[in-house]
Amino acid sequence: MPEHILFLTGKLAEKRLLRVLESMHERDFSYEVRNIGVSVAALMTAGMIDRRLETLEGVDRIMVPGLCRGDLQSLSEKLGIPVIRGTDDLKDLPFHFGRNFEAPDLSRHSVKIFAEIVDAAEISLEELLQRALDYRDDGADVIDIGCLPDTDFPGLEDAVKLLKEAGLSVSVDSMDSEELLRAGQAGADYLLSLKESTLWIAEEVEAIPVLIPEEHPQVDSLYRAMRKLSEAGKPYIADSILDPIHFGFTESLIRYSELRKKFPDCEIMMGVGNLTELTEADTTGINAILFGVISELGINSILTTQVSPHARSAVREADAARRMFHAAKEQDSLPKGIDGSLLTVHERNPFSYNGTEINEIASEVKDPSYRIQVSEEGIHVYNRDGIACADDPFELFPELRELSDDAPHAFYMGIELHKAQLALQLGKRYTQDQALDWGAALKTDKSESETNEEYKKAGSTLEAGRKRSKDE
Hints:
Elements lengths: L2 E7 L4 H10 L5 E7 L10 H7 L8 E4 L7 H8 L3 E3 L7 H6 L13 E6 L7 H14 L3 E5 L9 H10 L3 E5 L3 H10 L3 E5 L5 H5 L3 E4 L8 H12 L5 E2 L10 H14 L6 E3 L1 H4 L6 H15 L3 E5 L8 H18 L23 H9 L7 E5 L2 E6 L2 E5 L2 H4 L10 H20 L21 H14 L1 H4 L6
Parallel strand pairs: 1-2, 1-3, 3-4, 5-6, 5-12, 6-7, 7-8, 8-9, 9-10, 11-12
Antiparallel strand pairs: 13-14, 14-15
Helix pairs in contact: 5-6, 6-7, 12-13
């Protein structure tokens, strides 16, 4: 017997929700749509549902709007029926149900992130620790202390011990044998990078070495070093080195492929900074392509940096990419429709409604509060007095005449129209009273729901201004 789902909605969305559900011809559930007495579905709360919901006989699951606020887990326990959030936009429901209610599992991955602090010798221990903690919060598993050529690093041991005391895994990156030995003796977990001629260091310390060729790009010496450590029963990570574009990039990818074929069970690292740092393009796309290669070849670790200003979110992007590609590989699917964190500028489906549909929605509005929506045709602003559409907010402002005497309301509308214009120009999803989603490119200490909650509170503060009308 198919599952019976109760969809809760508001007055303005009820007809549209019914149309979307009726269009899903291959659904494997029966349904009921119930308006619980709110005008705007997004204003629904768990408490409101608890107070107003009646007659749940035969209901197996309750679906509420994606923007519904409150503790749905407690509500589920009280009602004895699972209450889940649907999509923020009604038109995304078919896609949501195509995944059988199960969001992709992004909690797991198979790639370790080494995040390098490249100028560690030139900064204070306090700054070193702060950067390390920031990298950890962005997803780094190992903090790499980068040594500089021809630069003394008398505080190397102190740096290693400080990060270890903070509970961090530590690697040290140097081409100087003495520095690598000191780092290992100080307790570093990994050493970057040992060659065939410096394998003796691995016999002196417990740190796991990352091996590279003696003379790049020749890999024979790398293979010999790998075999020697394998015979000795010592762990290692191999890196055949990724080269920048026009300086051997394609050939370096082939080397990684050959390395995996020759040593199917070995640990491999790829340093992605030669592409993210040295290519003037958004790093989200670069990381996506590289992690596709990493996923196919089963590469276990990456080394990334955040030196160039345009690479400032490289660690967060790597963390998002490793989770997305891991989920896609487990599902034996394309890396599409799993997670939008790397779609920082554009969006998979930016415009949910066309102008005709928005005009239909606007015709149902009976109050003076302004609504804003975006379609390919432009920015649409409407309330009970009518609807206007334009590409430029400056063209819309003369239509909002009453705002001239209402500074708070004008301020609010200015902010929202600017967001709508950005969404239109870039091809991003716009939802009124919500922050635009910049994915992994934006660092925030707040969750998406917390950020959107603040937008809603700000909007509520201006509610008096928003509800003023000509006949008041």
